[in-house]
Amino acid sequence: MRVYVREPRITDAEAFVAKARESIAMHRPWVYPPTSIGGFQDYLDRLREPRYEGYFICRKTDAEIVGVANVSEINRGAMNSGFAGYWAFSGFQGHGYLTEGLALVFDDVFDRLRLHRLEVNIQPANTASIALAKRLGLRKEGFSKGYLNIGGEWRDHERWAILDEEWEARGGSLFVVS
Question: Could you list the mean pLDDT of each consecutive 10-residue stretch along the chain, which spans 178 residues?
């Protein structure tokens, strides 16, 4: 693995905001990360809630933040599931960093958090994200019209998911080759 994951922290604010601003053209219309210090603080505040987990994907060679993954709406009890979202920063896409980083996130989700199911919702035209979901072994479960409001618009999404036993059968992050 060329990456590791860690929790976001307040000392990341300036670097994160700069990277988010530099990545606007690449991110839109798929995702709208915070592009202000206040927005980043709101993001950190949300991560303190038990239904959210946040991860920064960092390159081992220089500790550079190359991407972000979040697990939201963690629902315990009979569902025991959550929703994952992710993105790379501009200049770091297409190098496999997100594949490796998400594999580590999925390990954490299924091992430490002990979730049974993880779902990823992807806009149909976001072919790079769909390819990533496939590489990680997620299966397409369906299509949801007007599913999420992103950037002020209700957008259609494909639903992709994986269960803990499916992830384990693939060998978890060990199946990812750097």
Answer: 96 97 90 95 97 98 97 96 96 94 97 97 96 96 95 95 95 71
